[in-house]
Batch of 3 targets.
Target 1
Amino acid sequence: MKAKRALVGVLFLNLALWFSMGYAFASTIAGRVSDPDGTPISGAQIIAQGPESQFSKTVVTQEDGSFSLDPLPAGVYTLTVRRLGFAELVQQNVPVGENGDSVRLNLRLRSNREQAVAVGVEEINPNIFVVKLDTNEIIRQLSTRGANTQLVTEFRSQENSFGALYGYPLRRVELARTGTLLRNFHGSLYETHQNSAWNARSFFTVGGLPPSRRNDYGAAVGGPLVQEKLFTEFAWSQSRDSGAVNGNIQVPTAEERIPRSADPATNALMARLLSAYPSQLPNLPHVSTRQLNTNAPRDLRSTAFSTRFDYRPRPADQFAVEQRFYDTTEEPFELVIGQNPVTFLRPQSYHLTQTHTFSPRTVSRLGLNYDRLAIFLDVTDRYKNLFAPLGLTAVPEITFGRNGDLTSLGPGPNYPRRRIENRFHVAPEITHVRGNHALSVGGLLSRYQINDLQSENSRGVFDYTRNFGRSSVENFLLGRASSFKINLGDFYRGFRSWEQAAYFQDRFRLRPNLTLSLGLRYERMTAPVEVNHLTSIAYRTDANNLSPQFGFAWNPRGGKIAIRGGYGVSFGALFPLLYQRARFNPPAVKVISVDNNPSLVNPLQGYDLSSGGIARSGLNLLSPDLVVPYSHLYTLSIERELPAGLFFRVGYMGSRTMKLPWDVITNRAVPVTGIPTTTATVNERRPDPRYLEIDTVTNGATAYYDSLNVSVEKRLSRTMTWSVRYIFSKILDTGDTTFADIGTGRHKSMEPYNIVGDLKGPSQFDTPQSLTVTYRYQLPGFGGPGLLAHALGGWRLYGTYSYRTGVPYMLHTGSDAPGFGNVDGVGQDRPHVLNPSILGKGINHPDTSPSILRREYFDANIPAGGRGNIGFDTFRLDGTNNLNFAVEREFALRGGADQTPALQFRSEFFNFLNHPQFDSYSPHVANEIFGKITNTANRGRIIQFLLRLRF
């Protein structure tokens, strides 16, 4: 409390000093414009517009992406950045002080849909399906490629930067930005095309690439409806990705295509399940006995359009209205029938922003947002009808563990899934410049409405593992599952919650060579309420979240050296995926687990399904003390301008993220005298006979990040710019949780009361070393009027090379049965390691992985209720080693001042050297496929062409 009072006192003292300052004249806004990967963008137009349009200045970025706007009078500015092929960027409320003040801005432009910039990462293999909901895509990107962190050089209380360290600020609210009104109409038409005929095969592909095509096309037009008053812009695009997806699955051999149960009814169901696998037999026996490389059709269609209006009724006021709509439908590939869900996704948004200029030094902004997301995911009709010949409608999930001996049947236990999200935001802000101080005060009020059907385990899940003295495949053919789980009840819920924030920011020049910034942000997040009172949330409103921010920029001798540093606190969120688990509790929902040899025909035989008849259920609890996690982020960097247009930067960046959620699983089965320790007696051996497994989410995990960032950039060159960036880092956590996850991820602790000791280790996206090299080269012009000189001159070459070490990965026993697990009813046990020399090695190639992960190097026979001695995530996957390349030219069709109309041609080569990045190995010792790599994380080389007409 004393610290908070001291901080508030300092801020009020600074505010008093600010009001005592006089007025003078200001100086410069300078910086650099780059793409998302840091490649400089030349030729970008930057328009600085002062209050009430009384002052306007336009510059164009240099070859190295740098720009400088000077001299500028003191005031609050709006910067508009435009470049062909990139989305327009508007940076509002940029305050410029007096007495030679210099504001530095590093701006990043996002690519338009018509231009995929050659960045240093591959396209993820399309045979890896990712559900576009919650933070799934972010986690998949990070766990495949690792973290590609960006050095933070400025802390702003106006924004919540939780996750920004990794390039994913999860809680930022994007407002419509009022921009500069154009005087003339402009537009563009474009088409991009990919075709499998030009692409290269991936590592495991058998035969030629099957036909597939991707077409992305669209148009944009914008201009004044009323000069100096009303401007409009409309953009429309469509994308169609169709054809075959090549992938790898584990299928039964010829001898494993016939059911082996003694029960005819079980055999009939087994025959239908076996029919879900393709009739083809394994064709890659050198990879694994059951490996089949095959193809399946996929059809992905999407439409997007946006409309924007800028209206200036009077010089002091401007309104911006934006509407965006996106609709996509995916008929997924099914290498195995039912492998992935059908997806219907429809996000849309409506944003309104009003800015008012009280004076050249005082500007207010009011933003109103409405964002809506509708998503529907369902089991494919082919899988729904799998049991139709037998007169049955519900088809359960069949699992063999992660990367099991057979590919699992079904899209996952969470489908069907329907969600409607409505988000409302109100964001006022006022910015004022006085003397050397630039002050911003504002807030945010948000309302969240989530209506969601989350049918976890509603169709039931049969898990087949090594048990009963047999392999998982043998148990499957016999119909002998190790467990059956199902949830029964009403799964539809409607949750409502509020978020509020208020902030204060002051940036001031203390000395001619020293600029400081101070800020404070307050956030309050209410506990969600279920509108029909079907589910109660145990935790309370989190209302004590204060985020101080501090930063400085120091030029020691007024020369070419700058030292920057800062510290800030950012609060995360308790995401819907976390608190919605509370629905899976009795009496509304029963969570049933059958561990005593469940029957495939009637797994709930012997259970009373009448109201209140089921006495035992699992529990999914939220701790009443659950609060929002938060991060401390701190940086220190030194920058130096060198001769020959070189720019050097070295910096340290670190963070500590506290109170991340994790799972605490209790009421596990324990050894009991007189009761056999088998999977069939798990429920009989639980300490609390009222319940099955009790899963509680609480705060407990901590994440650590430390990095050294070194970069060198070549600037100020007519023909070539380049940059080299190297990061040496370490990311640890104490519970297999991330800034984007909820602690319910890949791992569970082997014991409930020492989670930190059991799970502390490298984060799932820890990448100790990262190297990124980018370049842009302008071919010199060729003299003479000849056709050859015209054809060869004016071409631009782009390239990005990326190297990153592989991320950590797990190793489990693969069964909870005696001889392979501790038989406590909770999977993901880890074995004893008998050959410690293999620890920490990279499992990065299918030819070498089986020789490193040899079954005799591990002992899976851990004691009942005990644990193995191998650590958490002790091996590493294959890393990124990728080169992307692009060549483009723009042809002016008429010699106008702005080079319009113009025709742009661009050819892009992703994974130019066709280097495979191998996916994860099979981590389960009990599986026959243990230690083998069966897929790639990236695609083979892809060639894409772009043609764009600008007018």
Target 2
Amino acid sequence: MLGLLKERRNKRQTKKTFQSSQDTLPYLNAYADGVFQVKKERFSKVYSFHDINYQIAPIEQKQHYFEQYCHVLSSMDDRAAYQISIVNRDIDLDDLKEKIFLEERDDRFNHYRKEYNHMLAEKISEGNNDIESLKYVTITVEAKDYERAKMILARNESNLVQGFQNLGTALVPLTLTERLALYEEIYRNEITRGFDLTETTKQGLNTKDQIAPMSFEFKRNQGRVGDQYFQSTLLTNFPSRIKDDILTELTERDMKMILTINLQSIAPDKAIRLINRQITGMESDSMDLEQDSLQKGYLRTFVPHNLESGLKNAKAMLEQLQDDNEKLFTTNILITYFADSQDELEAHYEELSTIARRHICTLNILNFQQEDGLASTVPFGNNLLKIERTLTTQSTAIFMPFTSLEFNDANGLYYGMNPLTSNLILLNRKNLHNASGFILGIPGSGKSFASKREITNVLLNTEDDIIVIDPENEYGQLVKNLGGELINVSTNNQHTINPMDITIIDDVDPARKKDEVDPFAFKTEFILSVCDVILGGNMAPKVKSIIDRCIRLTYKAFVQSDFDRKHLPTLEDFYNQVKAQAEPEAKDLATALEMYVLGYLDTFTGHTNIDVDSRFVCFNIKDLGNQLKTLGLLIVLDAVWNRIRKNRDSGKHTWIYFDEAHLLFKNDYAQDFLFQLYKQARKYGGIPTGMTQNIIDMLVSDKAVTMLANSQYIMLLNQAETDTREIKALYSLSDNQLNYVRNAKAGSGLIKYGGSILPFDDQFPRDTDLYQLMTTKLDEVRRN
């Protein structure tokens, strides 16, 4: 229902003796599309926008953001008024815990879930996680009626939307329900779940009844909204130069508050006339002083500093307006904060006032204007204060509303704390277009711990499967304690992986059919690679044809049995087919295969006898000898690929971890596999992650460089100085950002997530069983 929502009172309230709290709210009417009428011929609309990583951006990027923000301000219509508001709201910690805590399950790992939840609860209490900063733009226009207001608002909206997109954020208009929820939380300190506008109207109520507190009380220098104390203040006395992080410092406080910048641009011709009048007035005052000095016989004229600097600033401002295409704005910056007690309110003022003084500003309490101060701060677009200052575009833009992008993904996993805001970092890599990733850092920086923390979180919190390729035997204890399958791949154990294993998908989803790889074609490529390794490389085309023929013969019974796995062939079956061929080249190939089928390297002969269907599988390849290193890697990687394809058919994600990934890139076959896996992982539900300490070793490979550049999840821990130059170039990092990975303590650094980069710090409590599962430090590991 578009159109005016009539603000009706209950029939019993036809006669008013005193002004009600509803009447105190600074608007007249609300409309179903979220537009509010704030005065007789003034209408407003509110838009939310998300933060960007401004504070840690490179200098060049910061300059770009500043220039783009100047463009946004310059696009503002001088016939409209604007508010930019930062609203710090309380978060229900019980709701937050319900969102991020691991649910208990019917397995034997609830002890670990309780430990994990206890850790999360401690992290929540350490930071500012009970406060969330929301950011809004409010546009207010003058119009005769609602219909005209809609058209003018739409025109103003289109001017701003592109500008915010260029900044890397987006303006999203608030619906009526969302706008009411914002006000309800400010005034009532609560949100009514499932507010039904139609039902409210049927009950004879209106939007003001939905958001009004039980009472308002306004005193000389403070007030009360319901049971909340509040105080409205004005930021004044700006110095000629001010740092661009002042709003960040003011709003990153553990308090419920609203900071609002009220803006009204002045038409260029009016702005120039205004400045000229000011200059004329100050020059006249200066001449009067000079004349007075001459009459009194003084040798020189004393001009007060304020007059002298004011005249200088006015002339500079006029030059900016005329020559630099600057605009002039009337502005005020208001801060209203809330508290549960008088003492807390006074403490809030002292905290904010100290920050203002540090920036050579003054935070003035609005004496006898608390009602207007509150109304002008809340994002209604109704500035009732007449206290304003004129600023140019650039002077206005220095009050940057951007700080640091927070990551609080739905169904996100814990990755540490944001040191800039002390908030939890919750990421869901499945939301990324390309979830593939790397964890990079020198020994002791926390690579293995970071991967184990993510693995543990995935195992305890999802139904996804996990596969680890472990070249250093670092994951055995974690696998053992979390019920996984540890597969020791070597010549002296009983574990067998059949290289002829193949995954056949019976009913491929038609939507995925074009992406499906022919399993026999893929297996043929794999067996060709195996034979190439065994023969030492450079296979002749004739040998490849023999292998192709033998593969078809080897799988013939399996195909004819309608893929009955009882007829699945082994490497020995393939060897027998090769040996039966008449060509001399086949005899040479059979001889080369013999050692791997009948000799002491027969590790991969026979059917698979391990639980490759376990949710958590770890291939320990540390004890693979030199003779089997390449072949073993190929066969393990093929088993991984079979599992990924099988899981996709079951609708399951597969997380794959490659520790010491730089070792795999020294092998051409393993490198090719990883390149294809990273390239196709998304459409197969795979989430691969490589860990390495030597990024320089990987950068010699073009394929590795492509993988590092295209992966949208990169965790950068402490880096060697020689690596920082490469990382800086690869990910366009600033010197400020690089400081987070130089001499960084273990478990801290940077995360590249999609197109954003943020610092993180993950200090996991050491007095937990989970820490013992994940640590690789010899002096901390408890051997069971």
Target 3
Amino acid sequence: MLVALLGTLPVAAQADITWCGSSVQSPEFIGVGLDGPGCLTVNGGSIITLSPIGSPPDHTAGINIGGNQYAPSEGHGAVTIDGASSRIDITGREAYANVGRWGTQSTGALTITNGGVLKTTILTVGRGTISPLPRQFFAALSGAGAGGVWEKTGNYSYAITTLSSLGESEPSSHRTSVWVDDATKTVTLTWSVPSAPVTGYRIYRSTNPGSYGEAAFVAEISSGTTTTYVDVGSPTTTGAPPGPDFENGATGMLTVSGSGSAIQLAGVDTGGNPGGATIGYAGGIGHVTLSGNAVMTIDGRRDPAETAPPATFSPYLIVGRDRVSQVKAGQDISSLRIDTGAKLTLTGNDLGGILMLGLGPRADGTLTVTGEGSELRIDAGGLNCCMTIGREGSGALTVDAGARLIFTDIKTGGVSLGHQATGEGTLSIRGGATVEINGSTAWPGMTVGRLGHGRLGITGGGQLVGTGTSPAGGAFLVFGGNSASVTGGAFEALISGQGSTLSLRGTDASLVLGRMPGASGTVTVDDGAAVEADLFTVGRSADSSASMTVSGGDTTISLTGDPEGTLGAGFTVGAAGTGTLTVDQGAVITIDGTATPQPTGVSVGGSVGGTGVVTISGGAQVLTDASGRACIGCTPGSTGTVTVTGADSLIDAGAFLGVGCDRDGSDGGTGTLALSEGGTARAVQIKFCGGGTGTIIGDGGTLIGDVLAAQGAVVSPGSSPGTLSIIGSFTSTGARIVLEVDANGNHDVLGVEGTAFFDPGTQIEVRVHPAFRPVGGAWLQLITVQRTPQDPVQPLLTLKVSEWGGGTVQTEGDLTTLSQPIVVVPDIDIPPTYRAVQIDIKPGVFPNVITRASAGTIPVAIISTPAFDALTVDPATITLDGAAVKLVGKGERPLCSTQDVNGDGRPDLLCHVLTSQLPAEGDGVAILDALAYPLGSPPGIPVRGADFIRIVPKEDGAGERHHWRWHRRGARGVFAWPPPRLQSMR
């Protein structure tokens, strides 16, 4: 046991200062329980002041409680500061207080209560380390030497470790390098001796500048006082410098309780340490509790009147730094707890202020702020401010039960959860607690999953409020990387419960999911929670994947554009990555851009490569103001899908909704709008573009507005048979309309309440399931119009279904003038690699009666359309249920000709198939397979088409004629393949 009196206390013979056990005391240093049990009590208004003695002015003073850095034996120290005006003041440039300093089994405890005060600059609770080299060392090319074996000409970096009774340290965090341009050169390394005793050093060299991981051993120096090594290019051997693997950390406990009790950490005006606290450092475990209105301050400010040198780093609060490789038995995670009205304030200097949880690989730290009146406040002030939760290690910050966390005066930086690739960070705001993030000259931001894994929870009435007062931009919350990271990490967030709120305010305040490539994760807003911002994006960057769910009857997202903003109001799903948004169970998203002159609305599938999927169900709604504009599959190369399903489910896009179009109505990418079971889409104008591909699918859904389906757009009233209702007007300028009838006779209906116009370029295809063969036939109304709800319904397209399957159509109005006749085809499955084509067996006749016993051939036409040229089909590849085209002449050429069989002005391919090769049975549908060569050369594209047939033992009639005649135009006779057009392409 070491008991020594090295000097006198500044206040001599104070009766209320008591000592016991192992202790060391002097005017500038106190050690309590360094290598055994020791204690110190300061009460009754007593004061201990520790100050540096003599010069230079950067000498320091401090107190160690529990453990000894010079002899890592077991020590246990306890210090109590009790009562009003009782205090320990420590001054000097690097004034320190260490609670639990060294030794795996050492412990330190500091209790401040009933108005006691500790004032110093640096506080460490729970520490252990093997002392590394001082922060800087230097390498310099030093002229001709003895030669050597340099691996290369170029840049080398060096690492130096220390040796002591505790083992080998990790390298200093500083890396230095030098250029070696000649094998005759030598490199001289210089450094200063560490403060802790060392027995020697090891030198490591790397050919990869700045990399310790690839450094190899060069030499060992067996003297701890040596400060120079000359490298002549000595060969390296296997062995890299060690990483952090601290096993000698002590445990420290700090408790501050009661009104007036305080920890005061302050920097000095002479350019020293700005002040800070580390809880759990280099293998040590630290626990700090502030309670009962106690106060802790970390103040990095300096007197403006002083001419001190500029600050070199920020004041800090770190919980969990550089952890052991495995948690030792009986140990837990370093922690800071602020409760029952206690307050901790960190005030930044010119460089700002820093809070970190989990700094360094394998580090763990938790911080809890709980209870009404309890508060953690960071007044950043400077340019380098940040709150990092899980930097390289694991960090968790919890604010609950009415407590507050205020992070204010941010100029740059913000909050990061899961900062580096190995980092895991969690922020939980619950129980009516509030977290405020306020910026003054730049956007204050929070990143969840920057490179690591970030988690955010706002529950039980918790609130996260971000405010940006700068014209440069408002608050933002990003998930999966930020602008300073090359890639993005993993993220998850839950905003749940009545009163739980995420509020982002200021110019262009935004919420971004999947900010950088590689990011992935989910955000859920439910059970009555609320989100307020200007914009949000789901799946922003290429190679990102993000999803958001908004659910529950009282759950809301309100997007309101700022008058000074440049981005307007609204949301984008699948901007350049993959994004999914689900809005269900009565949740509501509102977009109000009336206060901003910028664009307002919704984009689903925003830019090239972007894929967006939005589902609105269960009475949920997405509502845009009257000037809003929305697009689905907005730009070429993007894909967007919006599904609105269920009664009262609604998307109201405002002035314009484009499907396969951009917001300005120009052609976009691939867009699909699906409405079912009462789902509704509404806009003043709704446009389905064809240059991209705009598709509407309706299964009992409704479009409200003036609907325009352009050439190339697809209108399908049911993905399975259903009704698409249009209230307003419907105009087709060359759109493709697909109508289906299932095996039970359920059928699609396109019903327009208002006006309907179909230009001659409109294409209509009726698909009838082969199993639907109603006895005596059936009449089905597929397209109807009703000018007003009081007017009768007028059929425009009626299908007459034969009792043998298939059928013919009757048309009214514009549908009688279509340039492409309406076709009725079997509804068959087409493989994904095949292209569907139209065929007509025995053109001009229905039903298609085939006498199996007869010899001869059956004419089969492959129909050309605006999107397909039938003359690109190779007749030699055609089969109809296995039957081939008849060959004629010495050259055995296929018996085919070009005929415009349906009168649309396009040449069709008419071939004759051998009847004898048809199967004996197969009444109902015949399927044609072939290869088409649209480029004139291989590879061919498989095509498939089908038509209804009726096989009879003998001829029983020719059937009835189609409503259009079989036209014979163009060349007749044998069709020479390939045609001249394709020959010219070869």
